Amino acid sequence: MWSKSVGLVLCILLGVATKQPTKGQELACDVQIDRSQLSGSEFSFLGDLRRRVEEYINERNWTEDQFLSSEQITCSMQIVFLEALRPTEFRTRLIVTSRRPIYGTSQSTVVVRINDSEWQFEYSRGTSLRYDPNRYNPLTSVLDFYANIILGYDYDTFSELGGTPQFESARRIANEAKGTGDPGWSATSSDRNRRQLIDELLAQRHQPVRRAHYRYHRKGLDRFVKDPENARTEVIGLLESLQETSQYLSNSYSLDLFFATKYQELTALFLGGEQSNRAYNLLTQIDPGHSSEYNKLMNR
User: Fold this and answer.
1) Same domain, 38 and 137
2) Which of 2, 56, 115, 149 is buried most, with the most CB atoms less than 10 Å from its CB?
3) Are 204 and 218 in contact (CB under 8 A)?
4) CA distances from 62 to 97, 131, 133 (A)
5) How far is 285 from 226, CA to CA, in rounded Å?
6) End of a domain among 159, 174, 202?
7) From CA 107, how far away is CA 270, in angstroms rounded?
8) Residue 180: C-alpha distances to residues 2, 144, 175, 183, 218 (Å)
9) Number of domains in the chain
10) Nearest-angstrom CA–CA distance, 62 and 58
């Protein structure tokens, strides 16, 4: 099985010192609860959900791989309560964000940011969250799904298609949930939901999008400090690949997520560079929705 420590070996070869690995939890997730849209003091018990979700996510080993304590994946989940369907049943929005370090710097980059507006679950005072991979639960199964999505995206940035085992775990969860009728799990309920995302991430025709994550992070950002022009050339190459891919992928959720997460960073990466014109042409063709940001490349 691929281990994230493979990425660390590469960094050692590049002269980046590391500590000896020890087994630890993979995720360091910060959870925020927003219940401002619910009126009344009877929902104060929802404040306890933050601690319970953090413990559920952070105190579990999701893989068998070796992680340094300093290597944990930094991520966040913001649970926004939109409506109380019953005193203990809620319609919510979940905003999932994960980050990874940029090697050779003290900075980090957002790997993916997902806005899931189709999450309904029951929660009452004192409810405990129990992990059971063989039983669907509207609350914990969504947490399990996104824990694997975060891991899969992170692994994809260190090795081409390295997150496949984690995405396959997420697909098993989605398959178990498919017949429940709960929102977000059906391909017909929305074109921007969990079902579409995991189907795309494991589809052969969408692999160029996943390969772009590896090239962008490992060959682009991680090398930018030492060799900015070659790093930009690598990113131009992946944009050319995505331009070709976008011609046969209509309404691609995973492709849209890539640019929704990265459009500002892509602009900053090419500002002042020799390849800014080429980057502008590619970016505005593939991702016209963020053209106002990409216009900065032509105004320098």
Assistant:
1) yes
2) 149
3) no
4) 17, 11, 11
5) 29
6) 202
7) 18
8) 33, 16, 10, 9, 39
9) 2
10) 9
Based on the domain organization, do 292 and 178 belong to the same domain? no
d(CA 234, CA 149): 25
Q: Are 193 and 72 within one domain?
A: yes
What would the mean pLDDT of 6-23 be, rounded to a whole number? 40
Q: What is the mean pLDDT of residues 265-287?
A: 96
Residue 13, pLDDT score: 36
Residue with tokens 């995720």: 27
Domain that holds residue 145: 24-202
What sign for the dihedral angle of Cα 60, 63, 66, 70? negative
In the structure encoding, which two tokens stand for residue 225, read together?
């400090």
Provide the token pair at 93.
């929005």
Rounded Cα distance, 11 and 86, in Å: 52
Choosing from 202, 221, 248, the residue where a domain stops is 202
**Are residues 174 and 232 located together in one domain of the fold?**
no
Q: At 145, which amino acid appears? A: F
- In this structure, are residues 170 and 145 in contact, taking their beta carbons and an 8 Å threshold? yes
